[in-house]
Design a protein that fits this description.
Helices cover 73% and strands 0% of the residues. With 98 residues, the chain is mainly α.
């Protein structure tokens, strides 16, 4: 079921510039969590992180920040700000939930 949730989330968002930014941010944030936790196998750990991200409050914060950001020009400044949004929203799954 988690794979279906992930695919639906990505497919719904890939059709617009803001949606692609949301997906990129989600993938980066979840990849960082996966490597931070040093969980193996990586595919299972990433899937767990992505599923938890989809129901987290961080997801809403990231999407709100990106929506505000994309009202501006989408050039180098926007790319730097998107990187800032990604690095500012650390996502950690509690050990007992993993």
């Amino acid at each position: 079921m988690a794979i279906l949730d992930q695919n639906s989330y990505m497919m719904e968002n890939l059709h617009t510039r803001s949606g692609r930014a949301v997906v990129i941010a989600a993938l980066c944030i979840c990849a960082e969590q996966t490597f931070f936790a040093q969980s193996k196998p990586l595919s299972t750990a990433f899937s767990r992180a992505f599923h938890a991200y989809l129901s987290s409050t961080i997801k809403a914060q990231v999407e709100s920040d990106i929506a505000t950001l994309l009202l501006q020009d989408y050039e180098e400044v926007t790319k730097r700000k998107l990187t800032d949004i990604i690095t500012r929203h650390k996502f950690r799954i509690p050990v007992d939930a993993a």
